[in-house]
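Most newcomers find our protein records easier to grasp once they have seen one. There is nothing in a record beyond a sequence line and a structure line. Getting from the letters to the tokens is the skill we practise here. An example says more than a description, so a record of this kind follows:
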Amino acid sequence: MLKLLILAVIGAIIGWMTNVIAIKLMFRPINPVGIKGTPFVIQGLIPKRKAEIAKSIGDVISDELISIEKIVDKMLSEMDKKHIIDLIKQKVVVVASEKMPSIIPSMFKGMILQNIEQIIDENGEQIIIELGEQLSHKAIEAINISKMVEDQINAYDFEKIEEMTMKIAKTELKHIEVLGGVIGFFIGIFQGVIVLYALK
């Protein structure tokens, strides 16, 4: 029975250590390290695939989570169009009033300015929507959210990424380590039963 327990404990230690090493190898070594006398090079999985991971995250954010179209649509739907129309009207009326020749009688000036206000009131919202759509097209052409996210991730210091990941997933990673020990324990018992009893 003592031999069986020893084998189970050894199995648990091996299982736990295997998972601890596997988790470490996700992040370390950061830079490729060659094994002397062999053609093999070791590098952590995440640093090795950092560029691919950054591109994948950028694509997902751009395609699935947020896009320029969605940002502009949200902006257009939430902005106070009436307030914007009033601001445009005030500015246009002021400029038109200042630029009109002084020889135009005040009565005609008033009629012209009134017509301008009416035109803006009637067409202002449609103008804003059209300008918003044009802005949307220009923004889509000029701004690549996927590339911005990709560049930002690639610019991160990898040790910072590792620290953030470990902080966020600390509990889950600890569970993986413990699970390795538990599975190793039962494998040790199974092997012990085979070695001590089945092969007798």
Remarks:
- The first helix runs from residue 2 to 27.
